[in-house]
Amino acid sequence: MNFTDIHTLMPEIVMAVLALAVLLSELVIRRKETVGLLAIVSVAVTAYFIPTSFGTVFNGMFISDGYSVFFKFIFFTCLILTVLISSRYLEIERSSHGEYYALLMFATLGMMLMASAGDLIVLYLGLELMALSLYVLTGFIRHEYRSNEASLKYFLLGAFSSAILLYGIMMIYAQTGTTDINTISSVLTEKKATVSLLLSVIFLLVAFSFKIALAPFHMWTPDVYEGAPTSITAFMSVGPKAAGFAVLGRVFLVGLYPLQINWIPLLIGLSILTMAVGNILAIQQRSVKRMLAYSSIAHAGYAVIGIIAGGNEGVSAMMNYLLIYMFMNIGAFSILILMRSEDFLGESLDDFKGLAKTHPLTAGLMLLFMFSLTGIPPTAGFIGKFYLFKAAVGAGYTWLAIVTVIFSAISAYFYLRVVIYMYMHEPEGEAVSLSGSPSLGLALLISALLVLFIGIYPSPFISFARIVTG
Amino acid sequence: MIPLHWYLWLGSIVFCIGIFGFLAKRNIIIMFLSIELMLNGVNISLVALSHYMQDLRGEILVFFIIAVAAAEAAIGLAIVVSLFRNRTSPHVDEIRELKG
Amino acid sequence: MPGRYLPTEYLPVAIFIAISIAFGLGALIMGSMVRLRRPYREKLMPYESGIDPVGEPRVRFSIRFYIIAMLFVVFDVEAIFMYPWAIVFDKIGLFALIEMIIFIVILLVGYVYALKKEAFRWE
Lengths: 470, 100, 123
Fold this sequence. Notes:
The complex is a heterotrimer.
Chain A: H1 6-28, H2 32-48, E1 55-57, E2 62-64, H3 66-92, H4 99-116, H5 120-138, H6 145-176, H7 181-189, H8 195-212, H9 220-227, H10 230-236, H11 239-255, H12 260-283, H13 288-309, H14 311-339, H15 355-358, H16 360-374, H17 380-394, H18 398-424, H19 438-456, H20 459-469
Antiparallel strand pairs in A: 1-2
Helix pairs in contact in A: 1-2, 1-4, 2-3, 3-4, 3-10, 3-11, 3-14, 3-19, 3-20, 4-5, 4-11, 5-6, 6-8, 6-9, 7-11, 8-11, 8-12, 9-10, 9-13, 10-14, 11-13, 11-14, 12-13, 12-18, 13-14, 13-17, 13-18, 14-16, 14-17, 14-19, 14-20, 16-18, 16-19, 17-18, 17-19
Chain B: H1 4-24, H2 28-53, H3 57-86
Chain C: H1 11-34, H2 41-44, H3 63-78, H4 82-92, H5 94-116
Helix pairs in contact in C: 4-5
């Protein structure tokens, strides 16, 4: 290694240094919103180093290319939106601590490493950095039992899946003699698919399925998403999921590409099962937060189609879908945070009764996000699904696209039920008092505008994703 | 020298004991120990492979796994402690505020 | 010669393990064959004569112990990175020194944080 390589790593180095600085600043700064502001500034500084970071260093261990930069863009936006929606919420939960922001930054750093990993060792380290920060963030409301419990469940299953991932890495290493993703690919093209090779593929697939919550490895998701602080649920359902997709794409579409014939049926099965489980179980939920957790499972099932389709078309459709999903999902969770006040949980479906009468603007925004999650034009959700279907049909999986449309139609039932509760029911009891704040308003504004903007004029984002994968 | 596949068998047996312990036991601490056992099964295999292939990557990965496992242990204990402040039982079956 | 190898130097260990297992099992089996079995209520109590135990057998001790243990585990294990570093230090030289200083500074940040949060205070 020489010092000229350092510019490729600069975003990660800057992020690490600033995250440590934010951690220390927490010790001296009393007002915790200031720490949040510092976190946003740090992201801006880190993003400044991104354009000059392209390259492959450390013998291919670390890759900064269009693919990873697109994902880093998602992570940064996700971090900024999460910080914006957090500060008021943490005060309501009486858990306003500066470590929160430092941990978010460490998680983002881990995700950046995952997106850039060219070697399974780096991938593992990025994954653990992300996961360890998230375990703590999930249990961040220390005095609340729900949060503790969610954290424990997440921790146990997360550590279990990491161990399975490591076993898969070990088996790949045993058979190819390397952990470098590009070298694995070239070694595997000359090998026949043996049972032990397929077993290692299965191990890796199971571990990644745990991380991005594909059924039947989704069991932890509803509990963890419900128990975690709402702002962290918003973060977890977007950033780490996108990071999981980034490594899934890199490992399966580059490293294990020679075995594509063998893993595509597995992935198709997982995808259909995930859509079925997510959409059907979401129907029964009375809690909107839990409903959104199941919906996030279902959306992972949609996004996997991009990887099944493969190629530029499929990967760029998957990346776009994750970007769009970020805005609509964080938007929906922001509404939940808006509903939460000191003595009111605001998570149940009944709390949304007659919201259109008492708070028309909030109801209107929720309507927009629900439409987008369903995939109704002219919202961004429609564009995301449209390009996924297009990629699937282009790769010859028309039947899979049809199955997805059917499940999307089912999902309309539970998304639009929230809308019906808001617009067609009379308000019950006292009117819900909203706990807004300027930063939360800003986050809502950004998400709503982008959901509409991408829905009406998607070409800049579509071509951005095409260019970086091409 | 002991042949490589002996080590790999040992590693996989330790790993499987870990999986069994994780799935069969309902005490958080035992489950936690089982995960450590799984990691050590991987470590044994990696060190053996690394030695036989005369390649350092496996050993490097083992170093990182050990360090990460320590951090994981600390965080796991912290979560258990904060949970115990609100409840007292170490059994998973009694932890069921959240259900689906 | 993979596959046909017999680790003769481990033979004593194997014999030792076999003997110890046989001894343990043998003692238990012998005992169960020889001893009388005549259970009655007093005999089955934890103390045949004396007071029945009351309350939890486990003693609850301060949460401080756990916190110190956690901090110890983390900082202790990080030291493993210094061993390989020390072995190759004379080959890599200055660059390795700088890297290790960076590593230790990161640990130091963690230490300062723990210190300021009074994690080491025994009160």
